[in-house]
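Morning run. Coffee first, then this:
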Amino acid sequence: MIEEQVRQFVTENFLFSEDKKISETDSFLENGIIDSTGVLELVSFVEEKFNVKVKDEEMIPENLDSINNLVKFIKSKQNGNG
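And here it is:
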């Protein structure tokens, strides 16, 4: 499931702690989970794991700034929207 894979990646690469939990709607940027370098790592993960291409203009919070946003974005890319 996409959500589980995204959550696992974020937890393992950015939270570094099993006791920290992140909800589906938590903003990665506002909560200090991911910085600008982390966004690039996240994009790289999405492109490799889900075989989609993230365009520069798609690197916006509406697409990448929470688990929910990211899952919706990945699904839309996989369905041929973009």
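The chain has a mean pLDDT of 92. Good start to the day.
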